[in-house]
Amino acid sequence: MNKLCIEGNKNLNGSVTISGSKNAALPILFMTILTEEKIKIKNVPINLTDINIALQLLVYLGVKVTYKKVLYIDPSAINIFYAPYYLIKKIRASIWILAPLLARFGKAKIFFPGGCKIGNRPIDLHLKGLIKLGATINLHNNCINASVKGRLQGKYILMEKISVGATITIMSAATLARGITVIDNAACEPEIIDIANFLNTIGANIVGAGSKKIYIKGVLKLTGGTHQVIPDRIETGTFLVAAAVSRGHIICHKTEPKHLKSVLIQLTQAGAKIKTGKDWITLDMRNKRPKALNICTSPYPGFPTDMQAQFALLNSISQGIGTITETVFENRFIYISELINMGAKIKLKNNTIICYGMPKLSSSNVFCSDLRASATLILAGCIAFGVTTVNKTYHLIRGYESFPEKLNKLGADIKTM
Ligand code: UD1
């Protein structure tokens, strides 16, 4: 699926079932390396290419993987401590293979990871954290060589910048370290809590995940267990925006409203009527044009950078002038020129996107640059006048399960070319 043809001018209405969180499932898959016992994981978004590549990496190491609605993982026979370039370069998440290999086997060798082109995306905080825990790290020919004699050693680690990825790396390494590790200024994302819950289920001793300070008391060995991955909050947010920009009415099932507070606040300010239940959210924007918003992205519980592009689309068709200031990644704006091609009036001033709301967008031939940009351009195609062609949509399947199909059920007209 590289190209989509979208007949626009649609209202998106109906119900959608949200998949498991990609950003929780990916690290959890790599965390299974920490144990030699069998693991069962439910609600894995199995059709995503990022998940598929993560599983290929595990299989390369010697992990046995089977899937029958639930993912069964047997990491007892890992005999390779090296991850090859052709897999590592495909996903940013592959960095999370490093810490579990190092913590359990005392050695790991991987190439520098790839991923969405949304900024420099260094991994210095991951490596500094591991060095603090006693690892020796050598960088040579684009390769990271990590080793430790005996076990890692628990330490107090103050994160100089909030990083989801580095918090996960350090938390996972510390589960098998000697003594207590404290991660100060840790990321608080719901995915961090889910990973900590998973690790605790298999015998780790982690307290405080979801707050700024995480305490990890190292144990000698982790066990097996069963875990259910949390719902994908970014997929949920994307479908809520789909209804908001198309003046529709939607119910998202199998989601977690508590994880979307900052997004729901903004959608309410845009004029949407929102209701929430235990595991559902409805949004009603019928016969209403959204009001422009002023937003600043920041780490959780702030407004997620992964919703920046979708809300730039919302501001593009809203009443008034709206701004979005991006503070997490420095180069997450490539899609803007494509929205401008569709008639949006947008200016980029440093890291602030200024949208002068237009009543309607028009069809065009547009190109996707990354995962969230792909979803945004598809939504733009659904509401624009005319037929839009969205190219390079292979990014989409990295993070959204059956996105065109789910939108078509809501009344979109999207054809794969
Ligand atoms: C994760 C998510 C991504 C989300 C991001 C922020 C996954 C697979 N990806 O990415 O969807 O947009 O969190 O919520 O879960 N940084 C450094 N050095 C490091 C690591 C990060 O300087 O070693 C910087 C980054 O360049 C960025 C900021 O810290 O400016 C935040 O990045 P981080 O939270 O680590 O994002 P990821 O874990 O890569």
From TrEMBL:
Pfam family, one: EPSP_synthase
Main localization category: cytoplasm
Single biological process term from Gene Ontology: cell division
Example GO molecular function: UDP-N-acetylglucosamine 1-carboxyvinyltransferase activity
Binding site for UDP-N-acetyl-alpha-D-glucosamine: R92, R121, P122, I123, D124, L125, D306, V328
Record keywords: Cell cycle, Cell division, Cell shape, Cell wall biogenesis/degradation, Cytoplasm, Peptidoglycan synthesis, Pyruvate, Transferase
Domain of life: Bacteria
Location of the Enolpyruvate transferase domain: 7-407
This protein's pathway: Cell wall biogenesis; peptidoglycan biosynthesis
Cell cycle in keyword set: yes
Subcellular location, record wording: Cytoplasm
Top-tier EC class: transferase
Residue(s) carrying 2-(S-cysteinyl)pyruvic acid O-phosphothioketal: C116
PANTHER family associated with the record: UDP-N-ACETYLGLUCOSAMINE 1-CARBOXYVINYLTRANSFERASE
Similarity comment: family membership: Belongs to the EPSP synthase family. MurA subfamily.
Record-given protein name: UDP-N-acetylglucosamine 1-carboxyvinyltransferase
Taxonomic lineage: Bacteria, Pseudomonadati, Pseudomonadota, Gammaproteobacteria, Enterobacterales
Gene (UniProt): murA
